[in-house]
Amino acid sequence: MHEIELSHVDCADCPIRHRAVCSRCETDELEQLEEIKYYRTFEAGQTIAWTGDKLDFVATIVSGIATLSQTLEDGRTQMVGLLLPSDFMGRPGREMATYDVTATTEVVMCCFRRRPFEDLMRNTPHIAQRLLEMTLDELDAAREWMLLLGRKTAREKIASLLAIIARRDASLRHTGNSDVLEFDLPLTREAMADYLGLTLETVSRQVSALRREGVIELAGKRHVSVPDFDRLMLETGDDTDGGFLV
Amino acid sequence: MHEIELSHVDCADCPIRHRAVCSRCETDELEQLEEIKYYRTFEAGQTIAWTGDKLDFVATIVSGIATLSQTLEDGRTQMVGLLLPSDFMGRPGREMATYDVTATTEVVMCCFRRRPFEDLMRNTPHIAQRLLEMTLDELDAAREWMLLLGRKTAREKIASLLAIIARRDASLRHTGNSDVLEFDLPLTREAMADYLGLTLETVSRQVSALRREGVIELAGKRHVSVPDFDRLMLETGDDTDGGFLV
DNA sequence: CGAGGCATTGACTTGGTTCAAGAGGCGTGG
DNA sequence: CCACGCCTCTTGAACCAAGTCAATGCCTCG
Fold first, then answer.
1. B128 with B161, same domain?
2. No. of H helices and E strands in chain B?
3. Distance from A58 to chain B by nearest Cα, in Å?
4. Which chain B residues are closer than 8 Å to A238 by Cβ?
5. Can you say how many angstroms the Cα of residue B50 is from the centroid of all Cα atoms in its chain?
6. Has residue B175 got a pLDDT over 50?
7. Which residues form the HTH crp-type domain (chains A, B) (predicted)?
8. What is the β-pairing status of strands B66-71 and B77-83?
C-alpha cells in the first residue's frame, strides 16, 4: 500500500471508487476526471493545510486518515472531522481552507485542481448529486458528535469513539462478524482528547478504567480488542439501537 | 406577519426567496415548485416531528424559529441545529425524521411533498446546487458549534450565543450598524442550555454575571442590549475577527 | 387571588482539569 | 550493547468549573 504507483492509477482500479464523490460517474465522466486528477502523498504527522491557506485543489482520500481541526487563539483545539478513505476534502466554490487538515497516518489523496473540478461539477450532475449526499451524511455525523460533545460523560465519550472505530473497522474488512472485534487505534491519546473534547489525561484514565473492568483488552497502547460488543455499547449511553428493548 | 395568507403566497412575493433553496430557480422552475407547495403553521412549543416519524414533506422556514434536537435514553438532550427563516428542513431521499423538530416561536413553513420534490430536484440542477451550498454552510456551522461544545467555558458559550443572535438580528433588519445592538432572545434559558451543552442554572448564572459586569444589559428576562459589541466578542474566546454563521 | 411557568440564587458535590512525577518504547550514536 | 534523549502514555493529588438539589422570586393568565 505504501508502494502505490503515484504516477497513475486507473479509476477503474481505484479501491474506493464505489464510495467516493465519483461513485455515480459514467465512463465518459470518469475520463474527464482522469484528466484533471493527480495523486499526492503526505507523511504521518504532516500538515496538509492550515486554516486560511489558499487551497487550489479538492481531493478524495484514497488511503490513510486525516483530521480537520479548529483552534482558539489560546491554543485549545477541537477536532471537527475525521477524513477516512473515500471521504472528500475541500469545498467547491471556496478558495481558503477553513480548518487545519493534518495527516494522522500516511495519506494518499486523489486531487483535482479546483477550477476544472468546479467546471466539471456544473456539467455533470452525478458528481454534484453524490457530493450532496456525502455532505448530508457528514452533517448527520457532525450532529451526532455534537450530542457526544455536549452531553456525554468522559466514559461515554471514550466508549462511543471505540464503538465507532470498531464498527468502521469491521465493515471495512467485512469479516462476517467474528466473535471478537480487534483493531488498532489510529489516533494518539492526545488526538482522541481533541476529538472528544477532553484532556489526554482523562482519556488515559478512562481507557484504563474500561480495561480494568474488562470492557476492552489492550495489547500495547494502541491495539484494542472488544470481547463483548454489546457491553461496550451499553457504556456509550446511546439508545440500545433502533428503539426496541428498554 | 402572523396574518400571512396561508392559502397562497406567490413565490415572487416571498420574503425569503433570495436565500432559500429555491433562490436560483428560473421562472418556469418556480412555477413547478408553486404547484407542489403548500403552507403550514405551527404554534410556539409545538412539535413538528419526532425522531423516527415518517416525514412525507420537506420544507423551507418562512418565518419563526424551529430547533433540531437529539436525546439520549435517560433524557439528556442536545440541540443540534437552529432553523431560521429561509433554512431548509428535511432530507431528500430519506423517509424518516432523524431529529426532534420543535417550533420555538410560531413557525410558518413552505412545504413540498417529498416525492414530487425529489423528482423535481433530479431535473432542476438549480435546486440541488443551492441545497448543496446550504448544506455545506450548515456543516460549517455545525463544526463551529463542535468547537464551542468541546472547548469553550460556560461564559464563552453564553457570549458566543449572544454574539451570534445579535449579529443575525442586526443583519436581518439591516440597520446600518447603529451604536447599540438590541434584540430579544428567541430561546428560553432551558433551550439555551440545551443548545450550549449546559444546565439552565449555569446559563442563568452566566447571563447574570455578564449583566453584572456591564457586558450586556437586560430589560425583562429576554430583551438584551449590547452597549459594546467588541467587548462581547472578547468574551467569546474566538479570534478577534473570524466568525461566520449567518 | 392562586396556580403554573420561567428564572434567579445559594449551598454543596463532583467529574474532569491541572500540575507533576515517572514508566515504557524506540531510535541514535558512542 | 548500553546510554541517552525523545515520545507517548499512565497515574496520583489538589483544585475548580459546572452540575445537582432546593428555596424563592416574578410574571401572566384564569
1. no
2. 7, 11
3. 14
4. 72-73
5. 18
6. yes
7. 152-230
8. antiparallel
A245 found inside a domain:
no
What average pLDDT does the structure give for chain B? 91
- Asked if residues B194 and B78 have their Cβ atoms less than 8 Å apart, the reply is yes
B189 with B198: CB under 8 angstroms? no
Map residue A182 onto helix, strand or coil.
strand
Q: Is the CB of A205 less than 7 A from some atom of nucleic acid strand C?
A: yes
CA distance B131 to B155: 34
B140 contacts A135? CB cut-off 8 A: no
Report the Cα–Cα distance between both ends of chain A, in Å, rounded.
45
> B95, B45, B94, B98: which is closest to B70 by C-alpha?
B98
pLDDT value of position A175: 58
pLDDT (0 to 100) of residue B2: 42
Is residue A119 domain-shared with residue A219, that is, in the same domain?
no
**Residues 6-45 of chain A in contact with strand D via CB under 7 angstroms:** none
Helix (H, G, I), strand (E, B) or coil at B162: helix
Q: Which pLDDT score is estimated for A127?
A: 94
Domain closes at, from A134, A149, A164: A149
3-class DSSP assignment, residue A186: coil
Beta strands in chain B, from DSSP E residues, in sequence order: 37-42, 47-49, 57-63, 66-71, 77-83, 88-89, 100-103, 107-113, 181-184, 217-219, 223-226
Burial B175-208 (b: 16+ CB within 10 A, else e): eeeeeebbbebbbebebbbbbbbbeeebbbebbe
Strand order in the sheet with A223-226: A181-184, A223-226, A217-219
What secondary structure does DSSP assign to A46-65, as a single string?
Answer: -EEE-TT-B--EEEEEEES-
Task: Report how many domains make up chain B.
Answer: 2
Q: Which residue has the cell 454563521?
A: B245
Spatial distance between the Cα atoms of A196 and B139, rounded to a whole number of angstroms = 18
Phi and psi of A156, rounded to 5°? -65, -40
Query: Does residue B152 share a domain with residue B110?
Result: no
Question: Which set of grid coordinates corresponds to residue A136?
Answer: 448530508
DSSP state of B174: T
Q: pLDDT digits over B23-50, tens only?
A: 999 999 999 999 999 999 999 999 999 9
Contact, B6 vs B39, CB < 8 A?
yes
Q: Are B20 and B128 in a shared domain?
A: yes
Which nucleotide is nearest to A197 if distance is taken from CA to C1'?
Answer: C16
The CA-based diameter of chain A, rounded to the nearest angstrom, is 57
Please give the single-letter amino acid code of residue B7: S
Mean of the per-residue pLDDT values for chain A? Answer: 90
